[in-house]
Amino acid sequence: MERMLVTVRHGQSEWNLQSRFTGWKNPGLTPLGIEEARSVGRELKKRDLAFTVAFTSALLRAQHTLDIILDELGQTGIPTLSEPALNERHYGDLSGMSKEEACRKWGDEQVHLWRRSYEVAPPGGESLKDTSARILPFYCQNILPHVLRGGPVLVVSHENSLRALVMALEGLTPETVPQVEIENGAATAYRLNADATVASKQVFRG
């Protein structure tokens, strides 16, 4: 029994390309983002993974990425669940604003703190701590049981959603999690022990 969890960040979105804070907004994938999804799907196919179930957020860029991956795998018939608990963190007043505009308005240091820290939320938005508070219960109650039954399970989500999950899986602290960055189209395969701790980890891109 492998007990495998594979996480993927969605392919590049139109607002990733424009360096805009996206959060719960719904821009589509760019042509590069579509290719990133295809590429990671092909990479997963090389590993002969037959997923039992797939989870994604309620946002189109993650759903589209999942659809492309499953098409590449020839596994479009597996059960899938789109869940708002897996959404990207909400950026509040920053949503739709470019990183450059935000830095001009609030300063580089403050914007960096909102983007990378654990507990500091942008105005009207969520901190990484807030994001963890909705993602981790869903993971424990809905995703982990599938993994522990043998998996493999696929989760396609967003950078901060996955940072919150990585923090829990890898035992990171509020001081170490700011260094975690997850690229568009990047996949991570975790093999879990029977007690749900991580036995091994492999990061790859298509």
TrEMBL record:
Pfam families xref list: His_Phos_1
Top-rank taxon: Bacteria
An example molecular function term from Gene Ontology annotations: phosphoglycerate mutase activity
EC code: 5.4.2.11
Catalytic reaction annotation: (2R)-2-phosphoglycerate = (2R)-3-phosphoglycerate
Binding-site positions, substrate: 9-16, 22-23, 61, 88-91, 99, 115-116
InterPro entries for this protein: His_Pase_superF_clade-1, His_PPase_superfam, Phosphogly_mut1
Stored CDD domains: HP_PGM_like
Sites marked Transition state stabilizer: 158
This protein's UniProt keywords: Gluconeogenesis, Glycolysis, Isomerase
Active site per database record: 10, 88
Pathway(s) it belongs to: Carbohydrate degradation; glycolysis; pyruvate from D-glyceraldehyde 3-phosphate: step 3/5
Example GO BP: glycolytic process
Protein purpose: Catalyzes the interconversion of 2-phosphoglycerate and 3-phosphoglycerate.
Family statement drawn from the similarity comment of this UniProt entry: Belongs to the phosphoglycerate mutase family. BPG-dependent PGAM subfamily.
Subunit description: Homodimer.
Protein name (database record): 2,3-bisphosphoglycerate-dependent phosphoglycerate mutase
Native source species: Methylocystis heyeri
Gene: gpmA
